[in-house]
Structures are given as structure tokens and as C-alpha cells.
Design a protein that fits this description.
Strands 5-4-14-13-15-16-17-18-19 form a 9-stranded mixed β-sheet, with helices on both faces. A 5-stranded antiparallel β-sheet has the order 1-20-21-23-24. The chain has a 5-stranded parallel β-sheet with strand order 7-6-8-9-10, sandwiched between helices. The longest helix has 23 residues. α12 crosses α13. The chain folds into 3 domains: 226 residues, Rossmann fold (3-Layer(aba) Sandwich), CATH 3.40.50.12780; 145 residues, 3-Layer(aba) Sandwich (Rossmann fold), CATH 3.40.50; 133 residues, 2-Layer Sandwich (GMP Synthetase, Chain A, domain 3). It is built from 21 helices and 29 strands.
Length: 636
Amino acid sequence: MAGPRAAPEVAPFEPLEVEGQPAANLVDLVHRSVLAQPDHVALTWKPARGRRQSGDGDGGQPVAWRTSTYRETWDWIRDVSLGLQSLGIGSGDAVCIVCRTRPEWLVVDLASMALGAVTCPIYPSSEAGQTAFIINNVHARLVVVENAQQATKIESVRAECPTIEKLMIIDEKGTLPSDAISLDDLIELAPRDQDHRRVWEEGWRRITRDRLATIIHTSGTTANPKGVMLTHGNMVYNYEAVIQVVDFSPSDLFLSWLPLSHSYERVAGMVVPLARGCGIAYAEPLIERLPANMVEVRPTVMVAVPRLYERLHARVLSAVEEASAMRQRIFWWAAGLGKRKYANHLEGRSDSLWLKLQLRVADALVFGRIRARTGGRVRYFVSGSAPLSREIGEFFYAMGMLVLEGYGLTETAPFVSINRPDDFVFGTVGRPAPGTEVKVDPGSGEILVRGPQVMRGYVNDPAETARAIDGDRWFHTGDIGELDGIGRITITDRLKNIIVLANGKNVSPAPMEAALSTSKYVAQAIILGDRQPYTGVLVAPDFDELRGWARSNGLGDVGPEILIEERAVHRLLDNEVRTKLEDFAIFERPRRVALLPRLLTEEEGELTPSMKVKLRVVKDRWAGKVAELFEEDVPE
């Protein structure tokens, strides 16, 4: 059998150097930004409501945004680190962090790593049993939790976790365990003399790239996730590689809202901006506040998953449909100009003077107003974790906002490839990072990766490590994809997600699910059909959009359970599925559609924290709906 097909070339890579030396570790990487611009704002956030801090609102008044410069952030990291050291935390110790995305997460992470400790994130939504598994898998000595609710969860399994010596709590509210220490009290333990600080700095400077930095557990559907061991070098490489292909600058402001427990946000939304000297603004915890936060902080870069872009796309289309006929014509005229601009990009042609003039008019009439909803300054949206529809990428490009779709996995820390600002094709995930090799196995179509970002292995699981990384250090991603002539990658699906129909034909559900996401009436879509004679699709409608349609079509204002039983609603969704999937092969297209009465959620155990569908759970939870798709006595 022929060997795997490789990309034609590997882009050269050299570690970035400052004063003749590349960064030794993650702490060193951040410290360089502190030295370069100590007074530049590093972090912006709204304090948790109810905490007594200067600048907080009271009496129902809005909570003001707070800021921390690079110097102040570094002092915060140093004091927390020295406090942790006073508790006995040192090199090689595991520190678990159970907390939502907020500045303290970043501070505890870097403070722990400055001591040579290994940070081990746990999603706040993880149930107690899975939390206990992770704690025991890494032998954590310290668990840092956000609040009393998380502390209670840890206490419920503490008898099962013999290595826990201390619990630290960020927000001091509610009843806390007697031996818990608050973050503020921990900082008070930090020695203030210069000798301690000097020894502390000497310590983190000795940490090398091959030292273990973090263990991130995959958010899969099994009870026992795998712990991915990533070194300082794995993560520093991510920064050094991405900065060579995307022009982030210290003037950029990132808006962070995805879980820092996931490697995607931790690197793209924390390591990269801190190392580049950018600002990071933290969105409020309520997702409903995200649109307002975008307008308030006016980010230039935002890292997100496709679902955000899909919702923004749907909201714009809804607003267009409600506008006057004249405004609709203006919008679609402007959108058509954007398509011509993208076609020119693909062909390597410059825009004509006439097109440039029309685009200026379109910007004044349409695009500028849409961009204002994101704060008006976005240079790049970065998309990852799941496929993004080509249609949505083109849509935002027409609006003057470029979506850079990338590809990676927890096991690659996570950067494998990304579309460049000067070299992008929507529907692909770009060319490999500098210094990264990618090839496709000709038998299975699986993407294989080799480079400085590939993990050390899975903690306490040598058998799984051997299955994932072969003898030549190729990491087997489990993703199916293709390479074009210049090495640009297209991801088609996960190996384990491929549907094999009863007639033996293979169906890849991901491209169809991505296409359905462009419908404003579809919030979630799951293609099923393994070992069945045809495929079917479970659809969780976007009920905000569906209710508006129902009112306009005489169905009244009814709840989701009643709405999905209406024949007119079924006809609407059937038509959306047929229209969006008309370009796929006949045998691939779903023959039947079943509607769910609510969205799939992480809280119900149907989605992972990174928003991936837990297929087994969904099939069990919605067995009746699945049966509607394939039972022979159900009329079509």
C-alpha cells in the first residue's frame, strides 16, 4: 500500500527571539510583554456582582468595567504565586482549577506554572463524579474553585480524593469549608521582601520548554476523559507559529467568553494576546449579555465557535426580512457586492474602481450598521472547534469582518492550521502552521499531524498514547480531510461520525449539519442513519425565529411543544432542509425530519463544554424522535 499523501512542503519555523533568546516557558513569554509595555492595559472585566470592591455598582446600578495594566497583572500573578508557594505548592504538583472564564483564572494558571506546578482545568459544569476522576487522575494537591457552589461539589467527593490537601476559593460568598482559603487571604500570605521575589523569579526562569505545563482532559462523551499532557514548549510554539501568519498587534483587544478550561480559548484567547501585549476583555457570564459587551468594549479580535456566527447571521437576516422592500433590495445589492469582492480575492484580481466605489456606498448604507452591533472595530473573528459554513464566512467578509477559520485539537495544544488574512478560502481551515507537517492517510482519509505542538501523551494511559501517536511521532487526529495542491486543509468529518447506510454507502454528516446551520430557523441539526436505509435529521429549531414566523402566519404565540406539532411548521422545516441540502447527493440527504421541543444543552448532558453533541446521549434521550425518522409505519 502506498504511504500517506503529504502536503507539498512544510513552511519553515524558527522560535521568536527577544534580545537574542527565545522564550523559555509560558511565564517568560508573558513577562516579556510586561517589560515591553508595563502601563498598557492587559485585562478588562466586570467584577462579580455582590463583591465589595471599589468601582462596583450598588443599589441596582450597572457594574463598571475595571482594568489591570501589564505591571499590575504581573504583580497579581507574582503575589498569588508566592502565596501558593507558602501553602507548599511546588514543582510538579497538580493544581486543579474549577472556574468560569475570568481574570482570576488566568492569574491562578500562570501563578501555578511559575512554581513549576501543573495546572489541570476542570469545566465548572462537570458533574461531581467526573470532577473526582480528574482530580485523582492527576493527583491534585490543591483545588481552586470559583465559589461556594463549586466548593460544595468538591466537598461531596472529597473523601474519594485523598490527594487534596487544600481548597482555595475565589469568591467569598456562602458557607465555605472550614479549611478553605480565599484568594485574598492567599495573597496576604505572600512574602513581600525582595529576596523571596528574587528567588521566585530565578525559579520560573529555570523552567524549560520540555517541562509539563498543563493536563487538559478531553470533553468527550465517555465517563472517564483522557488527560492530555502539554508542555510549555507545546503552548509557546502555538504563539510563535500563529504570530508569524496573523498580524495581531499590541493595539488589539480580544473579547474572551469561551471556557478557558478548553485549550482553544486558553491559547487563542489568553496565551496569544498576553504574549503579543494585547488587551483581553472578559465577557459577563450570562451569554445574553454578550451582544451588549461587544458594543461596550469594542473588540478588534474575537475567538468563538461557529454557533455564535450562525446566530449573528440569522439575526441579520431576520432584521432584513422585517425591513421595507426598498431596504431589502439595498441589503441584497450590498451583499452581492461582497460576493464579487470575494470572487476577486479567489481569482487574485484587484477590485475595480467602480466596485470600490459601490462598496463604499454599501458600507455607509448597510455594512457599517451591521458592524456597529459588534462594536464596530472587529478586524478578525477566529473560528474553531467545529466546521463553519462557507456561506457564513462569505457573509461576514461581505460585511467587512474576516472570519479566520482554523483547525486544531487538545492534543495539538491546539494549533494545526489557520486561514491567513492574505490567503483564505472559506470552507477550508487553511494551511498548516509553520513547522507543522500534515498528511492524509490514503486508506482511511484520516489527517495525521507532526510538529512541536503534539502532546507528550495521555496521563496514566500509555496504551491510548501509543494508539494516538505512532512510532514516527505522527499524531492520528481521528478527523477525515483533504489537502489541496498547496497543502490547504479541508475537514470533512470525524472518523467516528461517518454514517454507513444499510446499502454500504458512507455519509459524512458534518457538511450537511453545517449547511443546515445557515437557516435562521435551525438552531441545531443532527444527521442520523447508521445502518439504516436512509438518513434522517433531528432539528432543534431557533424558537425565537420560529415564534416570529408563527405569529406572522396566523398560528399565534404558542409554546415550543405545541409549535413543533403544527403541520405548517413541519412544512417550513422540511422545506428548509430540502433547500439547504439540495447540492448534496440524493442518498446523503435526510428523508425525514423530526423536531425537538428545545435546544440541546450542556446542562442536560447533551453537549460537551466545547458545544459538541454527545450523540449517544441524544439518541437515548430522544429515542422517540429518532424512531420517527426510521420507523416504517411513519408516513413520509
